[in-house]
Amino acid sequence: MAHQAGGQRPAPRPAPATPEVQAYLEDYTAFLETVPFPSLVVDHRWDVVLTNGAFRTLFRGVGPHPTAMPADNFLRFVLFHPDASAVLGEHESSWCLPMLAHFAATLERHGRDPVLQAVRRDIAQDPIMEAAYRQGLPHWIRAVGAEAVEHDGAVRPLHHPDPRWGTTECRIVVETPKSLAELGFTRWTLVLREPRRTPLRPARPRRAATHLRVVPTPPR
């Protein structure tokens, strides 16, 4: 998948450059650095606008990738980066499929967006991910319910590089103040939870091929 998704990505939309907006984002960056949990601000394409130190620590072991770095575009990281499963526990069911579901809904609203269209083309290049998107996803949503697709409030497994956390869980909190919302931005915070005594399934070995191994298909 990495080589298939490694083409040139359209340039992200530039952030508004008014002095007031720039000053606000600078101050918001300073605020974000005080948050102890990994936090990021994204636009509707999942292009990353801001991150904090805790976010950078969480993904510090991720190897280079031309278009799918976590601080570049978080959707692309989840779907296409070969190291994603080393950080995002239960990668397929807990991260890939919910992100694919949100991507499908976003593409319906912003169908002409070149960045989203580029993601759609990369999905189409991978037969298993394309099958998940076109056939498996509707069946999966019906099976797990809409609440499993929603990001805000979801508890999802993580593999943190800091031994203090190790294999643990996070609760995703989507919290967007008015000023960010007016810019088209959304803030995610991954609130780390104390590690569970019963370990989660270990991360799968790094793979160069597609990330999705098993795609639930509708019954015939």
Please tag this protein with its features.
disordered C terminus, single chain, five-stranded antiparallel beta sheet, disordered N terminus, globular, 39% helix, 220 residues
Could you please describe the fold and organization of this structure?
With 220 residues, the protein is of the alpha+beta class. The protein has a single domain, classed as Beta-Lactamase (2-Layer Sandwich). It is built from 8 helices and 5 strands. It has helices at 19-33, 53-58, 74-80, 84-87, 91-109, 114-125, 127-144, 178-182; strands at 39-42, 48-51, 155-159, 167-174, 186-192. Strands 2-1-5-4-3 form a 5-stranded antiparallel β-sheet. The radius of gyration is 17 Å and the shape is globular.
Structural category is alpha+beta
**Secondary-structure element sequence?**
HEEHHHHHHEEHE
| Largest sheet geometry | 5 strands, antiparallel
Bulk shape: globular
- Unreliable parts: 1-13, 205-210, 216-220
Distance between the ends: 29 Å
Can you give the mean pLDDT? 85
Looking at the overall shape, the CATH architecture is 2-Layer Sandwich
Give me the count of strands.
Answer: 5
Measured by DSSP, the beta-strand proportion falls in: 5-15%
* Neighbour order of strands in the largest sheet: 2-1-5-4-3
How many discrete domains? 1
Tell me the name of the CATH class.
Answer: Alpha Beta
List strands and helices in order, with pairings.
Elements: H1 19-33, E1 39-42, E2 48-51, H2 53-58, H3 74-80, H4 84-87, H5 91-109, H6 114-125, H7 127-144, E3 155-159, E4 167-174, H8 178-182, E5 186-192
Antiparallel strand pairs: 1-2, 1-5, 3-4, 4-5
Helix pairs in contact: 5-7
